[in-house]
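Design request, tokens follow.
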């Protein structure tokens, strides 16, 4: 049994023809950038194709490649329900379920792009390995056999560099499931395929998506060189490539250059097994790998709320608690990060039982901004183990249609000017995936620790280009941890600014679905009652407070209806809104009538991230229900 070598990639001319319709709408600079990208990709893919041919693979057969030196552990938690679904003919991946109807999953049309990539990545082998029944072993081998016969012919999905890296990690980690007691022909075919996939990946890894995709490809290549016998000479090269990519992507404080906290969890789940394999073989891991692992775990602690979940910034949705607990178990108890992480630009204010995490950074570089959110200066706030204010969070793959709304400024706990996001979509950047965002360009932040508590002051210029206004936010968490006072202002970037009409703005506070929202006794106030019975009150000055509809996508149960407190006002130039949330004695629910009916938000809850100029006609405030 032989694995067919992937067909050679299309020539640059074919790639350019595919973009002919798009080219008419692009500027000269963008056309040059895309042309150079096409030529570079075609060159690298052709080199990878040549390396993967029989001509260059046959000398390696004379080396000792008929065995695996070791199998790395798979730290991801298996899902027993996957095996039960598979027995009924359903193959669920990436939030989609395919009805196989007796067919191999590699012989049917892919349900979606994400489903196909997860299928060819074989990460689902861990579910079968956890079952370890005789039927699961036979099924796993049959599915790998089907890939060797049919699945490997899918050029669009099977041979993407990041998919190859994931598949190498999966086959190596679950090699005992696939190879223990297997027939000699199948054993040899799997080992031969591993060798060829690694050879192809060594030349094609640069074509992986920027950011995490490149690290997945290089981690899979490095694991293959460590775990497959006879690849020691190649191991030195793959380790150098991985070390250089780690140095480029992992910041000095442990954050990722893409500013997505969830990326740190996925990276640790990939890199920790590599370190363990090197140590078991008596090899010293490269210093870049050790430094990165030592920095990333404290950074994850920096980004956690009191309930153990990651703050929902820049691509974070529902937190996988099991995965997070697994990587945090490797924490060496090193010194915590400062209140303001200097490179990642996340601030963490902690006093008493209260934790506030604030995003005080600009979007990542354009090539990495596909998952970034327009949530500059947004905050999340928890009391003890209960989250109080949370951003909407990124929906799961099954609800990907809501992702654009979740990325908008109005879906975050921050100020939104005239229902426009503080960032803009950009046509530049990578061709695949969601559109990246750009702006704000300048974000300032400073933290002062006083006897009264922690004071954070920050600004961003996301609205300067359209309105000439800076957003300035200050937060004060008192020493006792029972009051968070803040102010949000719009100040002219230069001189004195005066509009011909009032421009509406709103400060959003999205409340966690487990928190009850009641109208307050005083005007422009609202009461918040946590599940534990704690009673908190939000008051504001300079704005009308209303309760409006919201949605929470950052939970394990998918999108849930929620509520938000919105402070609405208008400015004709400079404006400022003050607010504070503080704890009251235990709530007496008899004092309250039925919770206030949720008022509809003006327009749409999540506005599109799009360029917007000054309106031709004076704007008007939308409907909002003021609490009196």
């Amino acid at each position: 049994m032989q694995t067919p070598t992937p067909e050679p990639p299309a020539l640059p001319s074919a790639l350019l023809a595919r973009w002919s319709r798009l080219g008419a709408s692009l500027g000269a600079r963008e056309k040059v950038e895309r042309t150079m990208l096409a030529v570079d990709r075609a060159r690298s893919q052709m080199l990878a194709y040549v390396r993967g041919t029989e001509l260059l693979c046959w000398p390696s057969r004379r080396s000792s490649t008929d065995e695996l030196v070791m199998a790395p552990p798979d730290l991801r938690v298996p899902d027993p329900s996957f095996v039960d679904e598979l027995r009924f003919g359903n193959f669920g991946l990436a939030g989609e379920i395919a009805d196989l109807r007796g067919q191999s999953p590699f012989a049917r049309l892919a349900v979606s792009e994400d489903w196909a990539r997860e299928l060819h990545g074989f990460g689902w082998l861990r579910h079968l390995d956890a079952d370890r029944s005789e039927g699961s072993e036979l099924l796993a081998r049959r599915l790998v056999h089907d890939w060797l016969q049919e699945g490997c012919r899918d050029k669009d999905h099977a041979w993407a560099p990041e998919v190859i890296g994931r598949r190498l990690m999966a086959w190596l980690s679950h090699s005992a499931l696939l190879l223990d007691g297997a027939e000699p022909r199948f054993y040899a075919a799997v080992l031969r395929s591993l060798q060829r996939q690694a050879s192809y990946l060594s030349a094609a890894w640069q074509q992986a998506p920027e950011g995490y995709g490149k690290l997945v490809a290089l981690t899979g290549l490095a694991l293959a060189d460590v775990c497959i016998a006879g690849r020691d000479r190649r191991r030195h090269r793959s380790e150098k490539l991985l070390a250089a990519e780690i140095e480029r992507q992992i910041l000095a404080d442990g954050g990722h250059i893409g500013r997505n906290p969830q990326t740190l969890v996925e990276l640790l789940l990939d890199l920790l097994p590599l370190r363990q394999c090197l140590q078991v073989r008596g090899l010293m891991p490269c210093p870049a790998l050790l430094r990165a692992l030592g920095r990333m775990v404290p950074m994850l602690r920096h980004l956690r709320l009191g309930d153990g979940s990651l703050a929902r910034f820049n691509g974070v949705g529902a937190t996988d608690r099991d995965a997070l607990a697994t990587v945090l178990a490797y924490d060496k108890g090193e010194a915590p990060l400062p209140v303001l992480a200097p490179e990642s630009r996340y601030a963490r204010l902690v006093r008493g039982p209260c934790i506030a995490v604030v995003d005080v950074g600009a979007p990542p570089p354009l090539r990495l901004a596909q998952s970034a959110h327009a949530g500059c200066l947004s905050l999340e706030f928890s009391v003890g183990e209960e989250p109080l204010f949370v951003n909407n969070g990124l929906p799961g793959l099954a609800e990907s249609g809501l992702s654009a709304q979740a990325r908008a400024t109005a879906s975050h706990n921050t100020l939104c000017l005239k229902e426009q996001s503080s960032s803009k979509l950009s046509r530049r950047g990578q061709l695949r995936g969601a559109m990246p965002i750009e702006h704000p360009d300048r974000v300032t932040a400073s933290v002062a620790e006083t006897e009264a508590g922690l004071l954070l002051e920050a600004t961003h210029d996301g609205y300067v280009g359209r309105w000439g206004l800076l957003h300035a936010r200050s937060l004060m968490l008192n020493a006792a941890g029972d009051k968070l006072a803040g102010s949000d202002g719009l100040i002219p970037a230069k001189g004195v600014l005066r509009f011909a009409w009032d421009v509406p703005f709103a400060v959003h506070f999205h409340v966690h679905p487990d928190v009850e929202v009641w109208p307050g006794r005083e005007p422009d106030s609202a009461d918040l009652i946590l599940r534990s019975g704690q009673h908190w009150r939000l008051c504001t000055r300079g704005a009308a407070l209303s309760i409006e509809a919201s949605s929470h996508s950052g939970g394990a149960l998918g999108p849930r209806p929620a509520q938000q407190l919105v402070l609405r006002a208008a400015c004709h130039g400079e404006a400022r809104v003050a607010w504070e949330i503080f704890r009251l004695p235990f709530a007496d629910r008899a004092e309250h009538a039925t919770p206030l009916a949720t008022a509809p938000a003006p327009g749409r809850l999540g506005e599109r991230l799009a360029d917007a100029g000054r309106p031709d006609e004076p704007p008007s405030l939308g409907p909002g229900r003021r609490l009196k």
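Comment from the thread starter after seeing the answer: thanks! Residues 1-26, 48-65, 593-628 have pLDDT under 50 and may be disordered.
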